[in-house]
Amino acid sequence: MNISRREFVSASLALGASSFLNLQASPLGQSGLTIQQVMDLILKSVPGAPFQQTVDTIKTGDVGQRVTGIVTTMFATVDVIRKAISLKANFIIAHEPTFYNHTDSTDWIENDAVLKMKKELLNKNNIVVWRFHDYIHSMRPDSVLMGVLTSLGWEKYYDAGNPVMIKVPSITVREVVALAKAKLGIKSMRIVGDLSQSCERIAILPGAPGGRRQIGVQQQEKPDLMLCGEVAEWETSEYIRDAHALGLKRSLIILGHSFSEEPGMKWMAAWLQPQVQGVTVKHIPSSEPFTWV
Amino acid sequence: MNISRREFVSASLALGASSFLNLQASPLGQSGLTIQQVMDLILKSVPGAPFQQTVDTIKTGDVGQRVTGIVTTMFATVDVIRKAISLKANFIIAHEPTFYNHTDSTDWIENDAVLKMKKELLNKNNIVVWRFHDYIHSMRPDSVLMGVLTSLGWEKYYDAGNPVMIKVPSITVREVVALAKAKLGIKSMRIVGDLSQSCERIAILPGAPGGRRQIGVQQQEKPDLMLCGEVAEWETSEYIRDAHALGLKRSLIILGHSFSEEPGMKWMAAWLQPQVQGVTVKHIPSSEPFTWV
Which residues are within 8 A (CB) of A35 and not within 5 positions of it... i.e. 6 or more apart? Predict the structure, then answer.
């Protein structure tokens, strides 16, 4: 599927306008759809899906059961699982891993107390967790990227020919920090470079695509500013520190991994809702785990 | 070599007591030693060195030249290189990569402006950069770990039988944060868990050993608190968030990669100095690149 920019913004607006306040009072699971059928329906919108190689597998639960409610989130944390249970939703679509590593392999921590308790919570409540990472990034436009741009009010700058870059009217790094705090709900973040530097050419790389990708974009695009989810501290942040010391106009804003991609999963709830009538789809932000001190 | 705890502390104290204030006025490089000879001398203290497989290679420069001064640091940043040049030191021993990736491979960014300018700065000034990562972690005790423990006043809790764990008189997470700020020079950090939680069994993992190692220690040791350098935000920080939500007594302090290992490279300068008489060895902290906003 090719989602147009207008359709993307419409879905985002629908999310804002609709109300999920009376979820617990609503009759859930009236559709008769199984979780597998919902998955099949979603995958129709992903070019080339299903993929042979992907981390987007079922992490737990029986997909043959009838769906009673759907939750989208960044991380299926214990808190998000408990909220899903209280909403009587049995299907969590999470962008990131459930068991603390990229492939969700558990053989190396099978005796771990936390893993056991989390699995018990999931199994006891018949929750299915499905990762939706490779698939959402394969949509065109990448719905995570588009979610971030739309949240920032920058969707009009999206360039399908070079999605990683946008060109904006001159703005300082400090102003972008304030915008990101206001629009993405971030309280604290880290930057490298200069808060007073002006920016017009901005690279947007949500999540953690790795230093090679981030620095590859630096080499090719020489952006005034890069917005990213997270860095390894021996890679992109050191590159930008050196670039800045060498007199180049380069800065980096590290939004935090969750905050940088959450708008994509929020968008997904609004996009999915009209396709599964009778089933409530709700986005529960998992937010960040950090206390900044 | 096996450095005793007492010797380790002595070296650390020596560093504090000695003065490098008149470096520029001092005649450097009076030893006649080449950089290669200094390296050979250092490697005599590392069990099993030289290693066949290691990232601790020469990153730039001619090791056959006479050493004029030695700088130890975490990152050979552009600023650290400039300070070394101003000290007329031609040998930088850095714990972390110089060219923004673990193996310091540069084929993938050979046309990059930042890489070119940094290499030009190094070459023009005949600076040798040597990474000292695998080697320092192979010393017994691991001098990075011991550096951190000594800085925190916790060297007396070091347990050679289980170096990753210490047992301390009851202390809260908040008090450990305050201690780390005071002793390691950290202004801001992130924690996961509960600032008011008490701790007795603390895991210390400087740097970025990866989620498998960090979570492996969680599984095995169930520490009240883990101090680490950095995390991937889909690994250990999510594990601790869940552990905490499940009612377990687990917290995590993320010191920052540089701050968590800098004491090891500071220790190294004091340890090396008496072995290279006539050559000044100075530690230049590269600190962190981040502005917290």
Answer: A61, A62, A63, A64, A65, A66, A67, A90, A91, A128, A130
Give B3-31 pLDDT, tens digit per residue: 555 455 555 444 443 333 333 334 444 57
Mutate to test the interface with A, among B55, B95, B101 (most CBs of A within 10 A): B101
Nearest CB to A211 within list B100, B189, B254: B100
Confidence of residue B236 (pLDDT cuts 50, 70, 90): very high
Q: What is the 3-state secondary structure (H, E, C) of B79-130?
A: HHHHHHHHCCCCEEEECCCCCCCCCCCCHHHCCCHHHHHHHHHHHHCCCEEE
Rounded CA-CA distance B157/B262 in Å is: 20
pLDDT at position B21 is 36
Q: What would the DSSP string read from start to end of A108-147?
A: GGTT-HHHHHHHHHHHHTT-EEEE-SHHHHHSBS-HHHHH
Instruction: Say whether the ipTM exceeds 0.95.
Output: no
- pLDDT, residue A31, reads 72
Report CB contact under 8 Å: A100, B239. Answer: yes
- Residues B34, B36, B39, CA angle at the centre, nearest 5°? 115
What number is the average pLDDT over the span A172-182? Answer: 98
Q: Do A257 and B234 lie within an 8 Å CB cutoff?
A: yes
Cis preceding-peptide flag for B141 (omega within 30 of 0)? yes
Give the chain A residue nearest B219 (alpha carbons): A112
Contact B234 A96 (CB under 8 A): yes
**Which residues in chain A are contacts of B109 at CB distance < 8 A?**
215-216, 219
CB A32 within 8 A of CB A67: no
Q: Please report which residue ranges of chain B form alpha helices under DSSP H.
A: 5-17, 35-43, 78-86, 113-124, 134-138, 143-151, 173-184, 211-221, 236-245, 257-272
Tell me whether residues A114 and B236 touch, CB distance under 8 A: no
> What are the chain A neighbours of B228 within 8 Å (beta carbons)?
none
Rounded Cα gap, residues A271 and A4, in angstroms: 13
Residues of B in contact with A250 (CB under 8 A): 114
Task: Kindly report, residue by residue over A220-261, the tens digit of the pLDDT.
Answer: 999 999 999 999 999 999 999 999 999 999 999 999 999 999
Cβ neighbours around B6 below 10 Å, total = 9
Q: Which residues of B touch A287 (CB under 8 A)?
A: none
Helix (H), strand (E) at residue A261: helix A257-272
H or E stretch covering B72: strand B70-73
Beta-carbon contacts below 8 Å between A and B: 179
Q: How much is the pLDDT for B30?
A: 58
Q: What is the pLDDT of residues B248-269, one digit of tens each?
A: 999 999 999 999 999 999 999 9
